[in-house]
Design a protein that fits this description.
alpha+beta, Rubrerythrin, domain 2, 3-stranded antiparallel beta sheet, binds zinc ion, 57 residues
């Protein structure tokens, strides 16, 4: 798995530790499932769509 960094200034994702804009990048926290998290509702919705697509629901 490759490391991906995110610029703290322009929020651009890059593989480099220093962004093209010259700012230091930070490693975002790994995405993991958390119902209360920011991505919770979106991910749940995506999952439901997946089930619908498979004809499970
Ligand atoms: Zn930048």
């Amino acid at each position: 798995m490759r490391h991906i960094f995110r610029c703290s200034k322009c929020s651009k994702y890059t593989m480099k530790e220093i962004c093209d804009c010259g700012s230091r990048t930070i490693a975002p926290k790994p995405l993991k499932y958390s119902p209360g998290g920011k991505l919770g509702p979106y991910r749940r919705k995506a999952k439901i769509s997946e089930y619908i697509g498979r004809g499970v629901l």
